[in-house]
Structure formats: structure tokens, C-alpha cells
Amino acid sequence: MLATACGGDEGQTTITVVTHDSFQLTEDLIREFEEEHNATVKLLPKGDAGSMTTSLVLTKDRPEGDVAFGVDNTFLSRALDAGVFEAYESPLVGKIPAEFRAEGAGFVTPIDYGYVNFNYDIAALKAKGVEPPKTLEDLATAKYRGMTVVENPASSSPGLAFLAATVAYFGEAGYLDWWRAMRANGLVVVDGWETAYYTNFSLQGGEQPIVLSYATSPAFEQIFADPPREDSPTANILPPKGVFRQIEYAGILKGTKKQDLARKFIDFLLSVPVQEDIPGQMAVYPVNPEAKVPEAFSRFSEVTVPLAEVSAADMAANRQKWIDDWTKAVLR
Fold it and tell me: How many CB atoms lie within 10 A of CB 138?
């Protein structure tokens, strides 16, 4: 696990990287960057991606760092509209598939992606004598009453990603009806992913056997199982057009006095060693197709269903309305 700041020798330039709380890279890779560029990397975590984006916007005239990592495609337009980032296109961007480069081109660089969807605790559902749900409609039925925990879209990026997926899945006219049905069926809402997964999810000793998380979470559970196991204790619920692809970006913060070093850090994040480290550290896929991913990703976390279709323009235009309407329907 990375310390908040690595290195610290006199004469070194410090580069501050604003991140979300889930950012992790192997310490040796950070040290290699520091040694190569005679620099110290300081990480400044700012909560969930949503909280981090809000912080970047509020501090844009006096930025707290030089680079930001972890703004995703649910919140990106907010940061772009506020003029948080400085223009930069890495020479390594040409390796990245075009589908990841559509948003924020020239200002932010895609680094990784994942799929937001429900996981379930296999043993917990079996103990209840309940078959795993296959659709979002299933979750609102009586047999799954009180079994589902989600993150609040006002404060959580996976929560917002999934809210957008429900708009795509049910349509503008129908998505709130589903959410109201879920509320009536004992839906639990928490502020962020870490609380949902590590406190509420039954696998970790909580009460809910169904959690809004990521398609890679079952692979992660198998990779890091203690004691080791061949299978995963969790599995995915992947309804066609009900899964959201979340893309995370990095960008140089406007106003930095360390432009050259900041550019090198963006390039570093796209390098094959870092891209191959990302899956095992943050349970997401690298955008660089030259990077290998753990075998468990294909065994337990493959996503082949059609994805929820939510355009950047729709997200930018409707994000706040969707959140406000959801809040009235689910929390009030």
C-alpha cells in the first residue's frame, strides 16, 4: 500500500497527485518514477470520485495538486466545464482504443475502466434457499426483500453510474418506478462503495447478500482469498443493458508550476508496468491493450452483455436532475 508521500530527499521536486481513496499502485513503481525524475510523489486522497471532483472544482483557482487521478465518465463533464484541467495529450494515447478517448480528449487521459453492476454472496443466497436474481426487475420482488445495498449517487461514482444505467435500462419514464419499488422492498442506501462492500455486504459480515460493486470484484475475491481457493465466493448479476462501463481519467491541473513533471506522470500511468499493476491493485482493467490482466478476470469477471448506453451529453445535461429526482423518490 502506498504511503501518502514517498521519498522526500532534499533537492527533489514534489509532485502532488490528487486521487480518490481507492487509488493504489505498487510502491516500487512509484519509487522508480521518483528515482528516474528526481522527484517525490505525494498522494492527496479526497474521498470518493464524486467528492474528489467537487473538491477539484471548488479549488480550481488555487489547486491543491499538480495532477488528478480518478475523475470518471459520470463526473467528467463537471470538471471539464469548470476548466479544472490543462491541455495535454500523451504520446502514448495512440495505443488506447478510440472508445475510451471520446470524452475530454486533449484535456484528460483515460487510464483504466471497469463495469458497475451487482455482485451476490453465493453461500448467503444458498443458505436462504434463494436463486440468484438475473434481472433488475427480479431485485424488486418480495423474495429479495432487504437483501440489496447500493451507494448514494449524490456522493458515490458507482452509485451515479448505476443510476444512469437504470435510466438507460427502464427509460426516463420508468426508472423512478423501479427505484420506488426497491425502496418499498427494503433497499439499503449508504454513502460510498467501501461502506457498501466492507460493512453491509454479507461476505464481510454485513446483512445484505447483494451489493452494487464491480464486475471485477469476484475475480478480486478469488485472487486475494485467504486461505487460497480455486473458485470465487461471489458472482455477478449482469442484466443486458443494465451494466455501466466506468472509465477513469487522469489530467494535469490548471495552474501547476510543474508542468513537465506532471506530463511525465501521466505518461507513467499509461506505461505497461503501471497498466499491468492496476488490475491487481484497484480491480479495474487497463486501457493499454499491451498490458496483461490476471487470469481470474476472464474466469470470474467477464462481461459480454450489451452495456447501458448513456452518452456524455446526456450525463452532462441530466446528472443533477437524475440525482435530485432519485433523492426525492428513494430517501424522502
Answer: 14
What is the model's pLDDT at position 11? Answer: 55
d(CA 236, CA 118): 6
Mean pLDDT of the chain: 94
Domain 116-244+306-330 sits in CATH at 3.40.190.10
Would you say 242 and 253 are in contact if contact means Cβ atoms under 8 Å apart?
no
Q: Where are the alpha helices (DSSP H) in 59-156?
A: 76-81, 122-128, 136-139
Q: Are 107 and 251 in contact (CB under 8 A)?
A: yes
Provide mean pLDDT across the span 71-89. 93
What average pLDDT score do residues 221-250 get? 96
Architecture field, domain 13-114+246-300: 3-Layer(aba) Sandwich (3.40)
DSSP per residue, 264-313: HHHHHHHSHHHHHHHHHHHS-EES-TTS---HHHHHH----SPPP---HH
Q: In the chain, pLDDT over 90 holds for what percent of residues? A: 87
d(CA 81, CA 63): 16
Would you say the pTM of this structure is higher than 0.85?
yes
Q: Assess contact for 156 and 244: CB atoms under 8 A.
A: no
pLDDT higher than 90, residue 248: yes
Orientation of helix 49-58 relative to helix 157-170, angle to 10°: 110
* Separation of alpha carbons 192 and 151, rounded Å: 5
The label of the residue with cell 514534489 reads 14
Could you give the residue range(s) of every CATH 3.40.190.10 domain in the chain? 13-114+246-300, 116-244+306-330
